[in-house]
Amino acid sequence: MSATALTAWPERLYDAYVFDMDGTIYLGDHLLPGAKRLIEELRRRGIPVRFLSNNPTKDPEQYVEKLERLGLPTPVEEIANTVVTTTRWLLENKPGAVVFPIAEEPLIRAFHEAGIEMSDDPEKIDVVVASYDRTFDYRKLQIAFDAIWFHKRATLIATNPDRFCPFPGGRGEPDCASIIAAIEACTNTTCEMVVGKPDPVMAEAALGNTDVDPTRCVMVGDRIMTDIKMAVNTGMFSAMPLTGESTLEEALALPEAERPTHVLDRVDRLIPKVLWDEIGWTEENDPIV
Ligand SMILES: [Mg+2]
Question: What Gene3D superfamilies does the entry give (predicted)?
């Protein structure tokens, strides 16, 4: 497949659109070019739109507030993230387990509300949950180490596999992969489950309250190893805007079956060219640019 074919605009609309947020819809506190009018146009046509994030430092209600602030009011039912999926995964797969969350408040609050028992006593911990935790410190690492290595009772799971969270200006913040690596390094254990994208559990969480077939939907996200891989893992089409982490060169270097269906310079190219002309869109008349 040539670079031209790979970057071609979709020629049709899909049955539903699942959007990653960081690096896809917005970067920091600013919507990316085309994001607002794209979402509004899909909604105007009655096409389901869902939002999906690997980030466990906010709960869906906080994403509602953020999207509203950015001018994209969205009902909470249309948003899923690893706070929701990790809680659900524990309830289904580790019922009754005592959990040590290496996590910020939203994930701990969700565990509490779900009735999941939590402890920082290594003798009682069944599952250590690693996450994107900006309060991570040596004490938490020692508790995980004691529960897993010394008492040989706890297993390790994690909310998401991301190495860093992208920030404006090419900056970023260390994400869950660094916490997983710290625990795996000292305990010589391997993380049993990483709940976030690319695991199909996330696609299910996003599309669970629609009646659309995932194979007729498109996953839109800026990261090959999470967003695009989840699409490949679940048989969804995929679109990768070049507004976040992954690059066109990285997409082209993938085996054909793992490449994004579409690589886009801006996210509103998800609307086919013929419809851009019909609606009267140009790159210049995007109201947020
Ligand atoms: Mg992203």
Answer: HAD superfamily/HAD-like
